[in-house]
Each structure stands twice: as structure tokens, then as C-alpha cells.
Design brief:
- With 430 residues, the chain is mostly beta strands.
- It has three domains: 108 residues, no CATH class; 149 residues, no CATH class; 137 residues, Flagellar hook protein FlgE (Tick-borne Encephalitis virus Glycoprotein, domain 1), CATH 2.60.98.20.
- It is built from two helices and 34 strands.
- The strands form nine sheets. Strands 7, 8, 11, 12, 13, 26, 27, 28, 29, 30, 31 and 32 form a twelve-stranded antiparallel beta sheet that branches.
- Helix 1 packs antiparallel against helix 2.
- The longest helix has 33 residues.
- It is elongated.
- The two termini are 21 Å apart.
Length: 430
Amino acid sequence: MLRSMFSAISGLRAHQTKLDVAGNNIANVNTVGFKASQTVFEDTLSQVLRNGAAPNGDVAGTNPAQVGLGVKVAGITTNFGQGSTQNTGRASDFMISGDGFFVTKVGNEQLYTRAGSFDTDGVGNLVTPDGAKLQGWMANALGVVDPNGPIQDLRIPTGQVLAPVATTGSAISGNLSAGALSTDTAVTSQIQMYDDLGNAHAVSVTMSKMAAPAANRWSVNLVDTTTGTTLTPTPVELQFADGSATYLGADGQPLPAGTLAAPTPASFTVAAPTGAVPAWTKDVAVDLSSLTQFGGKSDAAAKTTAQSGSAMGVLEGYSLASDGTIVGIYSNGLRQNIGQLALATFTNPGGLEKAGNSSFRAGDNSGNPLVGQAGTGGRGSLSAGALEMSNVDLAEEFTGLIVAQRGFQANSRVITTSDEILQDLVQLKR
């Protein structure tokens, strides 16, 4: 009778723990990045009333007679399954699709979390709501990230200025009509170039069909309409053979043999503008080798390819690539890498210890953190503007509550029954 009572007491304790775990899961049903837990029971030692015996001659063997001494909690496991996605539209909300944890730092301690709700502090650090700093690799001045180096605090340099870059090359492609006449209107294309200080210069490229006997020849002139400077004092001449462009020198003679084995840009030295506008100090190479002369209309004006160079830019925003690269968006239209998030995986995530604030710390049985880039080494991919929500299944949790309640009630009935039997035993002397 006492055995049954003690076993029932252990059952009350175990089912109370199950209720505690289920209650915590339900409380965190809307917690970002929360991972639900489950309670696992196992029986305790059993008291042997009779040992078993092996068969011996004509005597059959017997099984042991044992009475269990109750139940105990074998463990509380964490379900690291993917939670549902909630779109937020915030650039600083990140979500991991797949395995891995964000790496954060609090003081000198490194923690790990699936909660990707970040913001910036007063100096631009990406931080969690409780102030932990997101870790990763910062890019150098050229936007190059070294993921083999040590991780550090990730910072968004709000208001960062991107220095201007002088134009050193440009190109024009498209078709010049084979049926064009020297009396036809010239084909005009526009290029925007930048000087050393990032000032924009609108450069007009005029392509005119040359009169006979210059068959299949075109004259090309470049004029900086911003300053009124002619960039090609001597017009560049192009001759087409079988539709492909061949460069001609200023004296009208073909270039040396083999020059056109690969695209050979023609370089023009930009004259220094006078007045308040700063001068260019670099030559600008204009590649015309992609121009063709076939039948049909001239469309070279509509096919100006992108040129090098840019104006000064100020960081206005950022986006996140699937590999965790944070790309800065600048006012001059350029994009440059700011840094890259680090993700950590563990051999046994179930061995992590909960550190509060939706974070984990490495445990004795979790293994060492394997830190690397998203999308490598089994790590998941990243996306911005979304959060991973709790993976708690309310239907399962409420069912677990019912099971735990019935288990608790059943064990309490065992205690009540044992008490009544003991009461009857005490009353035998009456």
C-alpha cells in the first residue's frame, strides 16, 4: 500500500512537470523563434519480489516478479523544427530557413538564437531587443568580406559616404544602318561620365556616315555638353567589314594586323575643362568594338552600355542576400557590401542550454559551435523582412494538457485509494 502511494506521488510530480512544460509552450505561442519542448517519462527502479529461475531438467523456468516504484522525468527535449513565417517588411528582421543560429554577444559571452528581430543602437550596431550584438564579418573599404577572419560586431554605418569614382571606361553597342547616307541625320547617343570629384558630365556621342569614296565608314565625335568641351579634336573613324567594326587611325589607315583579335577599345584623352568645373585627370577608354553595320534601322542610340565611374553616394538603406551578405544601397545608385552575418550550427542542438531572452548557450553535450556562412556546411539560408515564429502546436499542447490532467487525477486517485485501505487496516482492531 505504501509502495502504491509513493509511486502515485512520483506520478503527481512527473505530470506536474509535464503541465509546467506545456504551460510554458503555450505562454510562448507568439514568441519569435521559440522552440517548443516535450516531456519524456521513464519508470524508476523496480522492487524484486521473486527472482526468475532458468529451466532445470523437468522444472520449467520462472519469470521474475517485480513491482515498479513509480515514474520519473527522463528528459525535457526541445523541438528545433522550423517555425512559421511572418512577414514584417522591416529591413532589420532576419529569418533562417533551415538549420543554424544567429550568433550574438553579450559582454564577453557568445550566445545563439533563432529570433531574428534586430534593430540598430546609437552607433549603428545590429542588436537584439535585449541589447545583444549580432556577430558577423564587416567588409573592407572596397566592400570585400573575409569570412575566414574572426567574427565581430555587425554595424550599419548610417550616413556613410561612398567616395566618387572617376570614369575610366565606357562602351557603346548597337547597329548603324548599312543603308544610311552621308546626308542622313547623324546617330546620337548619350553617356554620363564623372570627373575626379564625382561631378557628372553629359557626353554626346555623334556617329555620322562619311561621304564617298569612304565606303562603310563612320565618323565618331565625343562632346562634353556640360562644359562644351570637344573630347575628340580629331574625329575617330570606323570602317565596317561584313558588319563588324574596324578601327581607323586619324590618317585613315587601318590599325596593325591582329589588333581586332579581341575587343580593342579606343581611348580618348579628356581635355581639362576650364573654369570652376574640376578637370579630369584620367583618360577615358570608349569601346566601340560592339557596334555593327547591318541592314535595318540604326539603334545604337538606344544601346549605350553602362560605364565606370560614379558620383559621391550616401548610405540610404540596406538589403540582405540569402547568404547573409548585407548590401548597402547608396544615393548614387550603387550597391556595396557592408558585412555578412555569421551562422552557427551544432552537432547536437538538443544539448544547448536555454539562456533566457530567446537565446541559447553551448552546453556540455551540444558540441562546439561551427560558425560559417549561410548556405554552407548544412547551414540554412537567410531572408529579410520576415521572422520565424514559434513552432508551438496549440492543438498538440492542449491535448497534452488533457493527458497530463488525467494522469495527475489518476495518480491522486491512487493516493486516495491507498489512504482508504490504510484507514480500513487501522480500524480492524475495533
